[in-house]
Amino acid sequence: MTRIATAALLAASLFAAPAFAAMKPGDAAPDFTATATLGGQEFSFSLASALKKGPVVLYFFPKAFTTGCTAEAHDFAEAAASYTAAGATLIGMSADDIGTLHKFSLQECGSKFPVAADPDLKVIKAYDSALIRVGSIGIADRISYVIAGNGKIAFAYSDRNPDKHVENTLAAVRALSKK
Hints:
It contains 6 helices and 9 strands. A hairpin with a 5-residue loop joins strand 8 and strand 9 (about 155-160). It is globular, with a radius of gyration of 15 Å. The chain is α+β, with helices and mostly antiparallel strands. The protein has one domain (about 5-179): Glutaredoxin, CATH 3.40.30.10.
């Protein structure tokens, strides 16, 4: 497949109608460890370790530095302190390589929360969040999960429009803290 055809398929998929998260509240969240970056500093993110501190907001995004993903990263960065205040850990994940995500973390996430690399789509597939795979190119769909401290999906939201992911996941985290 040519680069132009691949780019056209990617663009068409990003502007399609809202999708539906395949994982549902009550499902066990697949455990994972992934290479992540925060402010350009690489580290190993462990879901199991993060869950010991409270809920985790795991949001998947298609491609760093694209218009929607940049807007979504800015929104999550603006709300990062609110997630922390509610006792939640926030992390974004895409199929981008860690080098790209170092830059994205610094420039678009404002070094406010980590982003993890999943170029082999192992975690993305485990969370039923793969959007497309064309040859060696794969991307995540725009899906946000709130994972409760017990390791179960508490909330799932899927919409290719990034506008409501922060609002909806933050409300879900706050509802968890009231229980």
